[in-house]
Amino acid sequence: MIEGTVRDLQACIPVIFRLAGRPSLIIECVVDTGFAGALTLPPDAIKALGLPFFQEIEANLANDVDVKTAVHIADILWDGYEVEVAVLAMGRRPLLGTALLGGKRLCVNFVESGEVTIKSNGVAAAK
User: Fold this and answer.
1) How far is 49 from 53, CA to CA, in rounded Å?
2) Which has the least CB within 10 A, 30, 40, 50, 108?
3) H or E segment at 49?
C-alpha cells in the first residue's frame, strides 16, 4: 500500500526515486487522473536528478494544445518494487499519472490533511 496526504485539496503521494550512485530521493507528486502517463517533473528537477534522456514526444495538454516535451527515464520504488518509468519534463510541479495506477485502487479523503491510499485491487494492470 502507498500512502499520502491531501494538501490544498490535491492528493499528494511521495515517490521514491532510485538514483545511480546517489542516495534515494523522495519527491511529493500530485495525483493527476487526467494524465495518462507515469510522471512529470519540472525540467530543472530532471536536470538536478541527472535523469537520462529517452526521446522527445508531442504531449497533448488539457487545453488541447500539443507541445514537444523531452522524456527521461527514472527508476522509482513503487508499491514495494523498483520499476523503470518515463518522466515527462514539463510543468511547475511533479505529477503522478494513471499509468502508475493500473491494477490499483485510489482512495482520497478530500479534506485538508486527509488520507490518500493506493492499494492493489487484485486486478492485473493493462499493458
Assistant:
1) 12
2) 50
3) helix 43-49
Classify residue 127: in a domain, yes or no. no
Query: Domain of 20?
Result: 2-120
Answer yes or no: is 126 within a domain.
no
Structural domain total, the chain:
1
φ, ψ (nearest 5 deg) of residue 63: -90, 15
Q: In this structure, how many other beta carbons lie within 10 angstroms of the beta carbon of residue 35?
A: 20
Q: What confidence tens digit (pLDDT) does each residue in 91-119 have?
A: 999 999 999 999 999 999 999 999 999 99
Q: Distance between CA 57 and CA 108 in Å, rounded?
A: 31
Q: What is the pTM of this model?
A: 0.90
Specify the CATH number for the domain of residue 86: 2.40.70.10
